[in-house]
Design a protein that fits this description.
Length: 689
């Protein structure tokens, strides 16, 4: 679409330039835009005098001027092929008339025969015709219809005017004035695909935003080139050691703006705390995007994470498990975590009210005025949430999602498809924020994105699983101008995740006594005996503090004795119905004597087990360095964790320890990252030092 003159530019041309100056200066300023045709006509008449003096009576010059006139007229007609037919014809007629008169005047003289009369009649007439055309083209009240050369009419938006245009290196924005009473923003959204086809760009490159002040105005944005096609490695923690109230950086938009999400609310900006629905089909990069967000979370000082993945267990969350306070990797522990979350909400809310907080804020994590330990923010992260919803109840998260925000708790549900038979309508409505990756069809997209976002041009169903990491983010704190703008998640390698877990282990918050106490009283050993994962490169899990309100010295307010109100111990093992014995046969008394042996079967001799070498940690690290030196002596340029695992008998450690040592080599500068995930370039000692 060609650039349209704005009303401000038009007024600037017609208004006087400055507050000072007399009437003469004012008239000259108003006349300047119309002078070029008159100056051209005057110049043509004056140039004919010396031309006649030097060229009269020369047949060769006559032929040359005639050919030049014809050529100039033809060139004008050819050059005007991209303009309107009227402008092309007007230009060609003007050039033909002027060049013909000049040729005749140069040969015979400007005053010969009717040439003088033709000049004084024709020159002003042609100049005035261009002035009239110029005046009609300007419109102080706004641009004229058809300024886009008929493009909008072709795509079904006839009578639409381009009010303002802004063109950048890879982005063009147009403010459109729709014909009042004839077209609405809905008509524009229905024609986005036609506009994309007419411009020969992908459907996701064309987006529309409604004007909140006028239903007859919209902004059309076109981004012709996909600047997200290359993966973007995570640049590192955005707020290392900061608060979870600071923005969590998860990716980058196509214009280079960083994509951020917020978990707690902010009373100063009237932003509420956020729950998230993360959705995307297999292969869309949904889980990797979640790991990027969690890698940011574990670098903050005032937040704890309860995470569940009963479907993939350690496959997704594995590298971050040492930084997670409670990891539920099977259905029994996931059920216990959900019950603990439900019970923790009213207790945490009461704690906030007791100390005068209307919602969680960073000061809540500090020691309070009466010496009470602070309460960190709590994120309940459920990977593959469809499994607990399917096996427990489709309303299992409804109560949590409706009440948790006021208790300093954010709920994150990650699943492939949030359909009606997977997540209840109440739960979906209470989540509020969506982070949507590629999905199978438009119907799937509607489970997570509102109609106005899809109408604005969001199309995750176009990507499917062909563009991993591409996503749309509709969340509290994210301007609505970005809701339909694609972003690409940062890519975090396993070694980066290990580095984040190790580096920020000393600043991460421990669970508060209030939350720990209610969790212990609610689910007993499902919480108190939860598994603790060691940091990469170590074999000892972090110590569980005994002052969390559920130890032997707990107070009456937060006591824990392992029994329910009726005096029975809590049991979170899978319950049976009593029919199992009938299915498996006759009941066998475990106290009865074993029957006598009737036959002995001799199997092959079992080979002796090979014990791992018992060496100290220092010796194991020295062995790792020896292996790296050997790789360098062999002339290898790059290595990976699996290369070191081939020599694991030298240091008698597992994969997590080896991966941690590779991370230490990276931090020491002995290894450097490459473009290939999991491969590192060997840096010589003299350079690393």
């Amino acid at each position: 679409m060609p650039r349209t003159t704005t009303p401000d530019e038009t007024r600037q041309q017609y208004d006087a330039h400055g507050e000072g100056g007399g009437i003469g200066e004012y008239l000259l300023h108003r006349a300047k835009p119309h002078l070029p045709p008159w100056l051209a006509g005057t110049g043509t008449g004056l140039a004919s005098l010396p031309a006649h003096y030097f060229w009269s009576g020369q047949p060769g010059v006559t032929a040359g001027l005639t050919l030049a006139s014809v050529a100039l007229t033809g060139l004008t007609w050819w050059a005007g092929r991209s303009t309107t037919q009227q402008r092309r014809l007007h230009s060609a007629v003007t050039v033909a008339a002027a060049s013909t008169w000049f040729t005749a005047a140069a040969i015979a003289g400007p005053a010969a025969g009717p040439l003088g009369e033709l000049y004084f009649i024709g020159a002003p007439a042609l100049a005035l015709s261009w002035n009239i055309r110029q005046i009609l083209r300007k419109n102080v009240d706004g641009p004229t219809a058809g300024a886009d050369g008929g493009f909008l009419e072709k795509v079904g938006l006839a009578k639409t005017q381009v009010v303002r245009s802004e063109v950048g290196p890879n982005k063009a924005s147009f403010d459109l004035q729709l014909p009042r009473g004839e077209l609405t923003s809905t008509d524009v959204s229905k024609n986005l695909e036609r506009i994309a086809g007419a411009l020969d760009v992908p459907k996701t490159a064309v987006r529309m935003m409604e004007n909140p002040d006028s239903a007859s105005r919209v902004t059309l944005t076109i981004v012709p080139l996909d600047l997200l096609k290359n993966t973007v490695p995570c640049p590192g923690p955005s707020h290392p050691g900061g608060s979870i109230a600071d923005p969590v950086h998860v990716g980058i938009y196509e214009d280079g703006t960083e994509a951020v999400i917020y978990f707690p609310g902010d009373p100063k900006t009237s932003r509420n705390a956020a729950h998230f629905l993360i959705m995307g089909m297999t292969g869309s990069g949904k889980s990797e995007g979640g790991l990027t967000a969690l890698a940011e979370v574990v670098t903050r000082r005032d937040v704890i994470v309860w995470a569940s993945d009963p479907a993939k267990a350690e496959q997704t969350l594995g590298p971050l498990l040492p930084a997670i306070d409670w990891a539920a990797l099977d259905m029994p522990s996931t059920k216990a975590m959900i019950e603990a979350l439900k019970a923790a909400i009213p207790v945490r809310t009461a704690w906030l009210a007791k100390y005068g907080y209307k919602q969680w804020e960073p000061a809540c994590a500090e020691v309070q005025a009466d010496g009470t330990p602070g309460m960190p923010y709590l994120i309940g992260w459920f990977e593959e949430a469809a499994k607990p919803i399917r096996e427990i109840d489709d309303d299992v998260f409804t109560g949590i999602s409706q009440e948790a925000r006021s208790a300093g708790v954010s709920l994150v549900l990650s699943m492939q498809r949030a359909s009606g038979n997977q997540v209840s309508t109440d739960t979906r409505a209470s989540l509020g924020s969506s982070w949507v990756h590629g999905v199978r069809n438009e119907q799937d997209a509607r489970f997570a994105l509102d109609d106005e976002v899809l109408d604005a041009g969001a199309s995750p169903h176009v990507w499917k699983d062909k563009k991993p990491g591409y996503s749309y983010l509709v969340a509290n704190g994210v301007p609505d101008t970005f809701w339909a703008t694609p972003l690409r998640d940062y890519l975090t390698s396993v070694d980066y995740l290990n580095w984040a877990v190790i580096t920020f282990a000393g600043i991460r918050s421990r669970i508060d006594p209030t939350t720990a106490g209610i969790a212990a009283r609610t689910v007993d050993r499902a919480f108190t005996a939860r598994r603790r994962y060691p940091l990469p490169g170590t074999t000892t899990p972090p110590e569980i503090p005994m002052d969390d309100g559920h130890g032997p010295d707990a107070t009456d307010e937060d006591d824990y004795d392992g029994y329910d109100d009726e005096g029975s111990p809590y049991d979170w093992r899978p319950q049976t119905t009593g029919d199992e014995d009938d299915e498996e046969g006759e009941f066998i008394d475990p106290q009865s004597e074993l029957p006598e042996v009737e036959q002995v079967v001799q199997f092959a001799t079992r080979p002796p087990a090979v014990a791992r070498p018992e060496i100290t940690t220092a010796e194991a690290r020295a062995a790792m360095e020896e292996v790296l030196d050997a790789f360098e002596d062999e002339g290898r340029d790059t290595v990976g964790t699996r290369d070191f695992m081939e020599y694991c008998d030298r240091y008698g450690r597992g994969r997590s320890w080896v991966s941690g040592q590779v991370t230490q080599f990276l931090l020491a500068g002995r290894l450097a990252e490459t473009n290939e995930a999991g491969r590192y370039r060997i840096v010589p000692y003299d350079v690393a030092a």
